[in-house]
Amino acid sequence: MSGNNGGEQTQDRTLSRIGRKPIPIPSGVEVNIEFDGVTVKGPLGTLTQKYHPEVKVSVSDGMVLVERLSERKFHHALHGLTRSLISNAITGVTDGYTKTLELMGVGYRVQEAGDGIILNVGYSHPVEIHPGEGVTMEVEGNNRVHVRGIDKQKVGSLAAQVRKVRPPNAYKEKGIKYQGELLRFKPGKAAARKA
User: Fold this and answer.
1) CATH no. for residue 9?
2) Could you point out which of 1, 31, 93, 153 has its C-alpha 20 to 30 Å from the C-alpha of 135?
């Protein structure tokens, strides 16, 4: 029982440390605090990030400050989460986010289709995916897709949707994976018998 509490306290302290760090506002970025959200405008666009009313957010000396209202566990968690979300929004309108996916497998390929893509990954039919608002897809060669946008959550969600079409197969080394994703391939039953 005490071991679990120790782990939770360590997590709370980590979130608390993250929450206390001021977020620098880069040149060319404007941050406006509203009642229940922050609007961030930058070179790449505008994002509005909602936050819980039990967290205080302010701007001072070119920094965004996030404060919690008490030492309760709930406020500790909100503190770190809110700080991370606002920091992600500032990074998004400044640099943007990109997730790259790679197709593995003989005959697997991807091609552009309007604003979306068509995947040929071993099914009897091609799979077509179109991005939502605020996200773009770019094909490189015939086996790589770049998902780009200013909203980290939207980019990650669309990239996960593409990967889900044909997740990496642990035995056949086929499928769609994130660039840089480390995969542990398993030997098949035949290979195991030979060993």
Assistant:
1) 3.90.930.12
2) 31
- pLDDT higher at 81 or 118: 118
Spatial neighbors of 61 by CB under 8 A, at least 6 apart, are: none
- Check whether residue 78 and residue 150 sit in a common domain: no
Last residue of a domain, one of 94, 112, 129: 94
Domain boundary among 94, 111, 134: 94
Residue 18's pLDDT band, with cuts at 50, 70 and 90, is low
Residue 56 phi, psi (nearest 5): -100, 125
Structure-block tokens of residue 88? 């992600």
The per-residue b/e assignment along 130-150, b for 16 or more CB within 10 angstroms, e otherwise, is ebeeebebebeeeeebbbbbb
Residue 112 CA to residue 30 CA, distance in Å, equals 35
Residue-number span of the structural domain to which 36 is assigned: 2-94
